[in-house]
Write a structure and sequence with these properties.
Layout (H helix, E strand, L loop, with lengths): L6 H20 L3 H24 L9 H8 L5 H12 L1 H5 L4 H7 L2 H20 L1
Helix pairs in contact: 1-2, 1-7, 2-3, 2-7
């Protein structure tokens, strides 16, 4: 994917991944919900990067890399959320202790992450 029109594909995939996060939440798979939230925001950021630069984004899962690369300005609460979500990307992909991770990410915590992800995803698309 590259070129000026391909950012729409990134956004489409971001939406698809967010819908998958919602499905995982509905089924009680909270770790995968969080993983898909990260992936959804990663693709939204890659779409914005492609839209702004007309370049193909590098193969990175680091949300902060794209924020820094674009000098994207957002409020501090959202920046902290993305920083924290970025930190849990690896543990949710390759959990060292799945039961411990599952006990931490309750339905309530995961719902907050899901809702915040949707809000930030929409904000990214408006940039």
């Amino acid at each position: 994917m590259s070129g000026p029109e391909k950012f729409e594909e990134w956004y489409f995939q971001s939406d698809y991944d967010f819908e998958t996060a919602e499905a995982m939440f509905s089924s009680g798979r909270y770790i995968y919900t969080i993983f898909m939230c990260h992936l959804s925001l990663e693709k939204a950021l890659k779409g914005l990067f492609n839209k702004r630069t007309k370049e193909h984004p590098v193969k990175s899962h680091n949300l902060m890399y794209f924020i820094d690369k674009m000098a994207l300005e957002m409020n501090e609460d959202n920046m902290v959320f993305l920083f924290e979500l970025n930190k849990v990307s690896i543990p949710t992909r390759y959990p060292y202790d799945l039961e411990k991770l599952m006990s931490y990410y309750s339905k309530e915590i995961t719902l907050k992450i899901l809702n915040r992800t949707k809000s930030i995803q929409q904000w990214i698309r408006q940039q």
